[in-house]
Amino acid sequence: MQRAAMAEICSTRNDWSFHSTSDPLTRFLRDRRMRAALHMLRIRGLLDPAKQSVLIVCGGVGGEGVFLSRYGFTDVTVSDLSEEALAVCRSLEPRLRTMPLNAENMAEIPDSSYDLVLVQDGLHHLPRPVLGFTEMLRVARRAVIVIEPHDGLVGRLIGTEWERHGDVVNYVFRWNRSILNQATRSYLLCKQAIVLPRRMWDHNVVVGKLARRFPERWRLPVAKAVYQVLRPVNRLGNMMVAVVVKSDGDPTHRSGR
């Protein structure tokens, strides 16, 4: 299903400038969730882009890979079921490695192979999202980043339950703190992990349309202002940005802090 959906998208679209644009508004809207996740790692002393390897799961045409490469990561692998998507990825950023990969069965990748393993808006495309997540835990050495729709009242009221790409229909699996904790503990068992879920608002289409009603120099400040206004109620947000730190990869855990 994931492969069919991505093949459909790639066959009907030839403009991927969204991922490589220099437009400040587009870059802010596109990257804000990724930046929030990296900040969560940075404040724990777990971020070292020049030395860390990253695997992106369900990476599609490589938008996250392009961002990480420009952020300073030098060892980034984008994986996806779709060869068409990976071909687009290589054209967008030749420095990225690509790998055809079934996110639910990464048997070809040994345990603890990558420092960081990341997914953004990808697990909910899988028939078995929790299996994809536990595979991420297995192949990660230090931490897993999960950016997915949040399962809460607001998300259920305003979110989309079903996604359609041509003839392909996909159920949108939503996550929350409880699901993330249970999936982590059931897989790692007695091994400890630190689960750090955060909720955010993600209404980029609406915010982008609003901001573009203003003169160009005001567009980015307007978008930032909208999300700043929503910040006090982030706990009701429709998006989950979570970091799961494996205890053997957390320097604060080792030092007893």
CATH-level-2 architecture = 3-Layer(aba) Sandwich
- What fraction strand? 15-25%
Identify the overall geometry.
globular
* Helix content class: 40-55%
Order of helices and strands: HHEHEHEEHEHEEHEHHEH
Total number of beta strands: 9
Map the helices and strands.
Elements: H1 2-12, H2 24-42, E1 53-56, H3 63-71, E2 75-80, H4 83-92, E3 97-100, E4 114-120, H5 129-139, E5 140-149, H6 153-158, E6 162-165, E7 168-171, H7 177-188, E8 193-200, H8 204-211, H9 216-230, E9 239-246, H10 251-254
Parallel strand pairs: 1-2, 1-4, 2-3, 4-5
Antiparallel strand pairs: 5-9, 6-7, 8-9
Helix pairs in contact: 1-4, 2-8, 2-9, 5-7, 8-9
Explain briefly what this protein structure is.
This protein has 257 residues and is of the alpha/beta class.
Describe this protein with a few key phrases.
257 residues, alpha/beta, Rossmann fold, seven-stranded mixed β-sheet, two-stranded antiparallel sheet, globular, disordered C terminus
Report what the structure shows.
The chain is α/β, with parallel strands linked by helices and 257 residues long. The protein has a single domain (2-202, 235-248), classed as Rossmann fold (3-Layer(aba) Sandwich). 41% of the residues lie in helices and 21% in strands. It is built from 10 helices and 9 strands. The protein has a 7-stranded mixed beta sheet, sandwiched between helices. Helix 2 (24-42) packs across helix 8 (204-211), helix 2 packs parallel to helix 9 (216-230) and helix 8 (204-211) packs across helix 9 (216-230). The longest helix has 19 residues, at 24-42. The chain is globular.
